[in-house]
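User: Hi! I'm working on a homework problem where we have to compare a predicted structure to a textbook description. Could you give me the structure for the chain below?
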Amino acid sequence: MILDLLFPNRCLECNRIIDNDLLVCSLCFGHIHFTHQAYSDLTYIKERCKLLFPVEQAFALMKFENENVSRKIIHELKYKSREKAGKVIAGWTAERLDFQDEKPDMLVTVPLHPKKLKERGYNQLHLFAETLSEFYNIPFDHDLLKRNHYAKAQALKDKQHRLETENAFSVTKDISGKHILLIDDVFTTGNTVANIAWEILTAGNNKVSVLVMAVDI
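Assistant: Happy to help. Predicted structure tokens:
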């Protein structure tokens, strides 16, 4: 209680004091550029994925644009120790994502290298996926994938380095005949999800769909 008085939770956009379980105030929430697309739509992200690997469906919650609110939210989640932001974003996702008859069998998140995980203290995708797992009653597996190499954050790489993802990930368990929903925070070039998708697809008779918090358009 005392800490809440001394260090109140503030809106990430306008700095107004807000409830502890919020990220932005009601006014700034209206400035978030949600994609307003259905899971079964032929979306921009699905078209991009189809150029890289066989994808079933693809859904992006927000648009990741320069200086917009979604960029600030994801930056807080990844770099400002705001792990609980993942739960809030999952709530927004659950309000907008309807799997209908295409519900996946498992939720799988893009893994961090153990060194990066130790540095950050958490994987920014885990609480997001766990919250969605409970809401949709779909199991998650944080250990199905392994990142093989320690790398700089994508934001710090030039375009050429972003393309150097060969053999970056491995599937750690026998898996076949599953529809996997691969979860990431931001879809930029698509090379990370494509690299992982091929690992999952070639591991057995599997299918892959994609869910990201934001897509860089």
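For your comparison, note the following. The mean pLDDT is 91. Residues 1-30 form one domain. Good luck with the assignment!
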